[in-house]
Amino acid sequence: MYRFDETKNLFIAYAKWRDAVDRTEGNETVFGSNAEISEIARDLREDAEFELRILIQDLKKQNPAAIKEWVELTKQFLNDPEIGVSEEQIQLRKQIARDWKYSRSPLGVSVRYPHPSQYWGSGIGVLGPDLDW
Predict the structure, then answer these.
(1) Which of 3, 17, 71, 97 has its CA 20 to 30 A from that of 30?
(2) C-alpha to C-alpha distance for 12 and 73, rounded to whole angstroms
(3) pLDDT tier at 50 (50, 70, 90 boundaries)?
(4) Would you say 96 and 34 are in contact if contact means Cβ atoms under 8 Å apart?
(5) pLDDT of 10-21, one tens digit each?
(6) How far is CA 51 from CA 29, 82, 104, in A?
(7) How many CB atoms neighbour CB 109 within 10 A?
(8) DSSP string over the chain
């Protein structure tokens, strides 16, 4: 399904980060009975984001084509209209797709991807494109 194994790893790392954000955003408590649980959840979210950033940094040098494939497949998925999806969700998905960017210059590879909270209300599950996982 993918030209590169690293593309699959990027999808999985981003899905882990989205899942961690979806589970923890808005549920954090600084004091009280949930403070320790909130701290653990925040650590898991930060670890997932860090894992994604490290993977991207490594691939910028080793296999930038995998990053490009990841961005292109995600944008393609977001711009593919589904039957039964509201117009509001279609517009939100198109906006999310515009936030995905890949570029290459003499200075190196640059990639931009949206924060997972931008997916809220889009009707897209955490795993994103329903591809061969």
Answers:
(1) 17
(2) 14
(3) very high
(4) no
(5) 999 999 998 888
(6) 25, 31, 22
(7) 17
(8) --S-HHHHHHHHHHHHHHHHHHHHTT---SSSTTHHHHHHHHHHHHHHHHHHHHHHHHHHHH-HHHHHHHHHHHHHHHHS--TT--HHHHHHHHHHHHH-EEEEETTEEEEE---GGGGTTS---TT-S----
How far, in Å, CA of 123 to CA of 45, rounded?
Answer: 21
Name the percent of the chain lying above pLDDT 70: 84
Q: What is the mean pLDDT of residues 109-119?
A: 89
Q: What angle do CA 88, 76, 25 make, to 5 degrees?
A: 55
Q: How many CB atoms lie within 10 A of CB 17?
A: 24
**Residue-level length of the chain:** 133
Nearest Cα neighbor of 44 from 25, 26, 17 is: 17
Q: Express each pLDDT in 59-95 by its tens digit.
A: 999 999 999 999 999 998 888 877 777 888 888 989 9
